[in-house]
Write a structure and sequence with these properties.
The protein is an all-beta fold and 184 residues long. Helices cover 0% and strands 53% of the residues. The chain has an eight-stranded antiparallel barrel.
Length: 184
Amino acid sequence: MTGEYYLRGVMEVASGFKLNADSSFQFFFSYGALDRYGTGQWQVKDGKLIFNSRPQPAKDFALVTSKAVPGNHTTIRIIDSNAFLLSYVHAKFSPGSDQSLMTDKKGMIVLPKLRLDSVSLLFEFCPERYSTFPVADSTHNFFEFRFEPWLMEVFFNNFSLQVDENGLLGRHPLMKGAEFRYNK
């Protein structure tokens, strides 16, 4: 089973698995300028290849600051040394609407002052997971967050692919669809 298996038949996407002899694996996904990765352990069970990685952390962002500041606005601010990433964060607020707002080029969302119970953040290039933060003090109207280092990591929990004579067949961990082919 060891070797490299590459996704086939999907335009403009490069993705695959490298299975190592020590039962570890590496996963990669590239689409345009977006690169995601994952690692973990693999095993064969009942003709299927099963992938597991370390447990997924609860949140992809860290709350740096939460405080009350003068003014009639509520501010969400994302900080990171890579300014390109700052404008790709969506935020939802509770109480509030189900509509999400997107950060500007400086990583900011400024809206009329709200009394919040929680703030939920989603990085646009990792749409499979929200990070929700309860607001401990409802008088706070300034919230600063940073990305966690594992933001682009893909986590596997009993992800399985069928083994056949041509390679691997099954879902993709990030793309919609039931059947993808990975050739060795």
